[in-house]
Amino acid sequence: MVSGSSNLVRYNRGMNVGVLGTGVVGQAQAAKLSELDHDVVVGTRDTKDKKIKGLKIVSFAEAAAHGELIIEALNGNAALTVLKLLKKQLAGKVLIDISNPLDFSSGELRLTVINDDSLGEQIQKALPKTKVVKAFNTMNASVQVDPASVAGGDHHLFIAGDDKKAKTEVEKLAKSYGWKNIMDLGGIKSSRGMEMILPIWLNLFGVLGTANFNFKITK
Amino acid sequence: MVSGSSNLVRYNRGMNVGVLGTGVVGQAQAAKLSELDHDVVVGTRDTKDKKIKGLKIVSFAEAAAHGELIIEALNGNAALTVLKLLKKQLAGKVLIDISNPLDFSSGELRLTVINDDSLGEQIQKALPKTKVVKAFNTMNASVQVDPASVAGGDHHLFIAGDDKKAKTEVEKLAKSYGWKNIMDLGGIKSSRGMEMILPIWLNLFGVLGTANFNFKITK
Hints:
The structure is a homodimer of 219-residue chains. The first copy, chain A, is an alpha/beta fold and 219 residues long. Helix content of chain A is 33%, strand content 21%. Chain A is globular. The termini of chain A are far apart.
């Protein structure tokens, strides 16, 4: 395990990664990272309840401490609460925020953070010593880790974050997943547009009858 | 001039079209429609102020009365107020809503209608006898009327509306502009996602340094 203040991450293999969240996204990311020979643990709230074949399930705190790199794949409505408790373990590290502030409780899709704020920004504000990079939140989990499964990979991954080096590291990771088209949208403020694309994503999911699609920017 | 209750529109040539709004979008749409030999007038609030080469500028009411088909290219924050005054002239007609509820007055981009409502829905509610189709709002004016100018036209036009026949008519019009990929996102409620894509559109505009791009859905 590398100390929390280390910025050195190895993308080819052997990196310690802490995945937060045992949902579809957390599982897909953890499986891909394990396949790429990284040392992956997956953090959950209550380890007693969780047994997922092939994954090392630990507490949130253990996953946050284990990772040189953190993949945050929490439910968007819980993310901020969980992350605030892990502030110390996450200091100095790169955290990839995949979460979306979606709320279906009213029967209608609503984003709980919107317009002049975003979940990405709220997370960066709550964890000022962590290098938050918004990424992978605009496509299905299977597409995140296997971009070639859609149109041979000819579509876009958007990333946003205030720390340029952190974004370079996330780009390297994405390339190791097979991503060819990565578009840096700027600072963490650009999470706004990346989160507000979810309503049309869900609409397209319904119309196309599959989640196996993605946005490509043509020019 | 055809009566307000007529649903018969001719897309090849010779159709009466009323464009509402003299901004960049209204001008581009009017110029394209004129080029395609339609009889186009452009409605504005105060006809004394407006002289635009090659366009017949009339009042909002005259444009609404003239059109068998209406292109609504108003400022998103004025659209509803203007349209409510034209209720009678617009009854029975297909209205293409291109407007976006963008507000930059705070210094930050905000959508004034969002989440569980949209401008498209508000317009349909205000004009129950008009067949509102949301379209063309997710790309630059030049791309709207000349899709081949971006990647040879290999990208998507989204449309949404409650009236299937009206959407078929809008698809025919779009095809006459050169659109090859048209995706029907469903009822007018799908305006939500189409409007909420604007923040990332504006972000991409800044990053790419050009408005000459568009979204393509790859699968």
